[in-house]
Amino acid sequence: xxxxxxxxxxxxxxxxxxxxxxxxxxxxxxxxxxxxxxxxxxxxxxxxxxxxxxxxxxxxxxxxxxxxxxxxxxxxxxxxxxxxxxxxxxxxxxxxxxxxxxxxxxxxxxxxxxxxxxxxxxxxxxxxxxxxxxxxxxxxxxxxxxxxxxxxxxxxxxxxxxxxxxxxxxxxxxxxxxxxxxxxxxxxxxxxxxxxxxxxxxxxxxxxxxxxxxxxxxxxxxxxxxxxxxxxxxxxxxxxxxxxxxxxxxxxxxxxxxxxxxxxxxxxxxxxxxxxxxxxxxxxxxxxxxxxxxxxxxxxxxxxxxxxxxxxxxxxxxxxxxxxxxxxxxxxxxxxxxxxxxxxxxxxxxxxxxxxxxxxxxxxxxxxxxxxxxxxxxxxxxxxxxxxxxxxxxxxxxxxxxxxxxxxxxxxxxxxxxxxxxxxxxxxxxxxxxxxxxxxxxxxxxxxxxxxxxxxxxxxxxxxxxxxxxxxxxxxxxxxxxxxxxxxxxxxxxxxxxxxxxxx
Length: 504
Hints:
Layout: H1 2-30, H2 36-68, H3 70-74, H4 79-87, H5 95-106, E1 111-114, H6 121-143, H7 147-156, E2 162-165, H8 169-182, E3 190-193, H9 199-207, E4 212-215, H10 217-225, H11 229-232, E5 239-243, H12 245-250, H13 254-263, H14 271-278, E6 293-298, H15 307-315, H16 328-335, E7 343-346, E8 357-363, H17 369-379, E9 384-388, H18 392-404, E10 409-412, H19 418-430, E11 435-438, E12 451-456, H20 463-470, E13 480-486, H21 491-500
Parallel strand pairs: 1-6, 1-7, 2-4, 2-5, 3-4, 5-6, 8-13, 9-11, 9-12, 10-11, 12-13
Helix pairs in contact: 1-2, 5-6, 6-8, 10-13, 15-16
């Protein structure tokens, strides 16, 4: 084509220039009488060559992105974020990301989102956060506000801009890892703050002033109540995220979450109040921070019909107002100051189970459960497998038995030290055919590639837990299998479970 021939012509012309420069350099070497100024000119020309090569590489990369990442381009994301998605192998956004990113990144709306597990909820709130931070940084540069400080911002961090709460340590680490990967070359720092690890080490991390903190309510509140400067100075906080919000209540974190919310500045405070509050503190390069955005995400969503009206009433009342008639998500959303025009995205279906999940069960006596479990792992053990128990004693029994029978299993339960739990998670991710025996605390939010099978050695106590257990497989539109071992004592519970999913 004409465009291609022109492009080839440009390349040839640049090559010709480079050859001339190289000849000139050889002459300088051969002739000592040549001036040093000529050598300096050559160095400048070499630098121009390098710049030209980089520009050519960037042009080719942009062309590749336009072809392969059209769906991301439609969301009007920053080019650096689109490049990050390409690097991570995400060729198109998931449905929850398509629904949430425009509202969160471009309209500045609060978002309540619900979708099945493995649907990409982390980037549904993570990308809008990174988008706005990049836009604000560029605006700062354009306005030439505190030039040197703005230039150093990417390496030294700054005030806290986003606070993300998750119910478990493992989920906090996972969310943190996802965001770190997306922000790898953006100069935006993300750190995890969770219990079970050295508080001194986490305080050192906070001294570096990361823009984004992902943590569990217990440890975050512990550091906030002790007066940690980075977590207490929230005048520049632009994003507050509750991930797996309903789980936050189930795990008894409501009081801690409520205490953290009470520390947040009022998002509708006047400019005068903001100036007074921040006069002695570091601010984001004199840019006016937009009102705080709130993101609330979960795998399930049950909002009352007049939820928006309740949010309107909530804005005129105290953040600590009780909400006896609200569900857990509604209570937390209202207390966090969510605005009435919030975008509500509910992509859950009636069953909430992954679309490509194949469910089956094996009826057997309690004594035969071990033999059936061993058979499944031995014969159908391709891909990663998670075995769920309701009790730690059952977990210890089957993990000991399976190791004796030559199956190297990993374990994860609440009584293990945090380092051991995180090590087990990492080892499970590394092995293509790993087997993990876990209790129900592990069933929520954890995202693993290629979990082929989930086995319910003991039935869960509720349909909600069954959903989250089974949701560890068949993620990201892949196939997966969920197998329940049913003893005579389990039959009534199993019937009730099937009834809740309209399977009987």
